[in-house]
Design a protein that fits this description.
Structural class: alpha+beta
Radius of gyration: 29 Å
Oligomer: single chain
CATH architecture of the largest domain: Beta Barrel
Shape: globular
Number of helices: 14
Strand content: 25-35%
Number of domains: 4
CATH superfamily of the largest domain: Trypsin-like serine proteases
C-alpha cells in the first residue's frame, strides 16, 4: 500500500488524541470550552416544519389526460415509401384499423396568485385534453391553459372555477441565491402524494443542460424525481426561488443533480403571458460567442469570460446603445455575463422599456453603455399565405421571417427570407418533401426575400421548377417537372 494511505490506518480515537495533545503543547494550555449542554428540547430541535407549513399549501398536484390514436399493428401503410407519396394519413384514408386510448401523466405546480393562477412545466401539460389540479387540502378543480413557453419549459394555468384567496407562494429574487444555501423541493414524485425533500444550492447559472438557448438553471441536490416537474424550489424564508424542471439521471431516479428554472425567469413568463396572452420577450439585437482563454489573451483581458459581439441587427437596441462588432460584453445591470446564454437570460428577465447599464471591453479599455430593453421588431410584416396553384409547393403555408417571429419560434432571429410554417397533409408540397422550418431561397433562379416574391414566381406557368431551400444550415436543391 502506498505510504500516503498508511497514515490513515491510525484509529480515529488515537488520531483525535494526538491532535488534542498537539494543540495543548503548542499553546501551553488547553483552551476553555465554552460549549454547554442543551437546556431544553427547543435548543436541540432543528426542523423545516415552519417553512413547509407556509409553502406546501401553494404547491398542487397536476393530472393530465389526452387521447391518442394508435394503429393496432404495423402494416404496409406504415412503409415510408407510401407515407412520402400519399401522406401520413394514408392508412387512415384506406380504413386501416386504429384504436383510441387515454394517456395520463402527472406533475406538480405552484399557485402564484390567489385567484388560481398556477405555474408549471410546459412538458407536464403538453398536448393535454384535460387538466385537473388537486390542492394540498384535496380540493379538485379543472384548469385551462393560459399560455406556454417551450423555450423555458414553463406553462401558466388558471383554475376554471371562480376561486379567491387561495394560498400562494411569493417569488424571491433568484439572483440573491448563493451556492450552499439551503432549499426545499416540494412536489408529487411518482404520484405518491405531496413530498418534501431538502438540499443545498449546488451551482448557479447552469447554461448547458437543456434544449433551449434560454436555460439558466439553479442546480440542487434536493431529491427530485419524475412527478416533481413543475413543483417548487423554496428558500428557507418560504419564498419561491425556482420551478423544478429536470434531473440528471441514467435510471430515471434522483442522483442528487436536479435543475430548476430561476424565479426571475418564472416571473417574466407569468407577467408576459398574463398581460398579453402570449409571451413577448425583450431582445438585444446582437449576437456573439463566449470569450475563450485564447481570445482573452489576444485582446488583453486577464481572464476568459464575457461575450464577443459578432453581429448587430440594424436599428436594434444594441446598435442604438453604441454596441459594435468586436466589443466584449462583460456585465449587464451589474450581473456578470459568461456566455451568450447568460446574456440572453439577463435581457429576457429585464422589464420591457427599462434602461440598464452595459459594461464592455473595447480596444483595451473598459467602457459603460446604456441599453434600453425593447421587443424584437415585426419587420417585415408576416404576410402569412397558403400557396395554391399548379406547382410543387401547393399546400405550403409560408410567412415572412422577422426578428419577432424568429424569437417567437426559437429560431435564429437574424435569419431573413420566407419561412415554411406548416405543410398540408397529402398536398403536393408534402409529397415534394417540404417541411416546416424550411427557408425558401431560390425558385428558377429568382432570389426569394419576401412572400410576394414567392407568389409572383409561382404565379407563372412553367414546364419545370428548380427550387432551393435552406434546412438546418444546409442548402438543398431539387428539380420538379411542371
Amino acid at each position: 500500500m502506498p505510504r500516503s494511505f498508511v497514515m490513515f490506518r491510525l484509529p480515529i480515537v488515537a488520531l483525535a488524541t494526538v491532535l488534542a495533545l498537539s494543540v495543548i503543547l503548542s499553546s501551553g494550555a488547553a483552551p476553555a470550552d465554552t460549549r454547554q449542554v442543551p437546556q431544553s428540547q427547543e435548543q436541540v430541535k432543528l426542523s423545516y416544519a415552519p417553512v413547509v407549513r407556509q409553502a406546501a399549501p401553494a404547491v398542487v398536484n397536476i393530472f393530465t389526460a389526452k387521447k391518442v390514436r394508435q394503429r393496432r399493428r404495423p402494416t404496409l401503410f406504415d412503409d415510408p415509401f407510401f407515407q412520402r407519396f400519399f401522406g401520413g394519413d394514408f392508412g387512415l384514408r384506406f380504413g386501416q384499423p386504429q384504436r383510441e386510448r387515454v394517456q395520463r401523466s402527472l406533475g406538480s405546480g405552484v399557485i402564484v396568485r390567489p385567484d388560481g393562477l398556477i405555474i408549471t412545466n410546459q412538458h407536464v401539460i403538453e398536448g393535454a385534453d384535460e387538466i385537473k389540479v388537486v390542492l394540498h387540502d384535496r380540493r379538485e378543480y379543472e384548469a385551462r391553459l393560459v399560455g406556454a413557453d417551450d423555450r423555458t419549459d414553463l406553462a401558466v394555468l388558471r383554475i376554471q372555477d371562480n376561486v379567491q384567496d387561495l394560498p400562494t407562494l411569493d417569488m424571491a429574487d433568484s439572483d440573491s441565491l448563493q451556492v450552499g444555501d439551503l432549499v426545499l423541493a416540494i412536489g408529487n414524485p411518482f404520484g405518491v402524494g405531496q413530498t418534501v425533500t431538502s438540499g443545498i444550492v449546488s451551482a448557479l447559472a447552469r447554461t448547458q443542460k437543456g434544449k433551449s438557448d434560454l436555460n439558466f438553471f439553479i442546480q440542487t441536490d434536493a431529491a427530485i424525481n419524475p412527478g416533481n416537474s413543475g413543483g417548487a424550489l423554496v428558500a428557507l424564508d418560504g419564498r419561491l426561488v425556482g420551478i423544478n424542471t429536470a434531473i440528471y439521471s441514467k435510471s430515471g431516479g434522483s442522483l442528487g443533480i436536479g435543475f430548476a428554472v430561476p424565479s426571475n425567469m418564472v416571473r417574466a413568463v407569468v407577467n408576459g403571458v398574463v398581460k398579453d396572452g402570449r409571451l413577448v420577450r425583450p431582445w438585444l439585437g446582437a449576437d456573439g460567442r463566449m470569450v475563450t482563454a485564447d481570445i482573452a489573451n489576444s485582446l488583453g483581458l486577464d481572464r476568459p469570460g464575457g461575450v464577443i459581439i459578432e453581429d448587430i441587427y440594424p436599428g436594434s437596441a444594441a446598435e442604438r446603445a453604441g454596441l459594435r462588432r468586436g466589443d466584449i460584453v462583460l456585465a449587464l445591470a451589474g450581473h456578470e455575463v459568461r456566455d451568450m446564454t447568460a446574456l440572453k437570460f439577463r435581457i429576457t428577465t429585464t422589464p420591457m422599456g427599462e434602461t440598464v447599464p452595459l459594461r464592455i471591453w473595447r480596444q483595451g479599455a473598459f467602457k459603460a453603455l446604456r441599453l434600453e430593453v425593447e421587443a424584437p421588431p415585426e419587420t417585415p410584416p408576416r404576410n402569412q399565405r397558403e400557396l395554391g396553384g399548379r406547382h410543387p409547393m401547393t399546400g405550403a403555408i409560408v410567412v415572412n421571417l422577422s426578428p419577432a417571429l424568429g424569437d417567437e419560434l426559437g429560431i435564429d432571429p437574424f435569419a431573413k427570407g420566407v419561412l415554411v410554417l406548416r405543410v398540408r397533409k397529402g398536398s403536393p408540397a408534402q409529397r415534394a418533401g417540404l417541411r416546416p422550418g424550411d427557408l425558401m431561397r431560390r425558385v428558377n433562379g429568382k432570389e426569394i426575400r419576401l412572400v410576394r416574391d414567392l407568389l409572383a414566381v409561382f404565379g407563372r406557368a412553367e414546364k419545370a421548377w428548380d427550387i432551393t431551400i435552406m434546412r438546418q444550415g444546409r442548402e438543398l436543391r431539387d428539380r420538379f417537372e411542371g
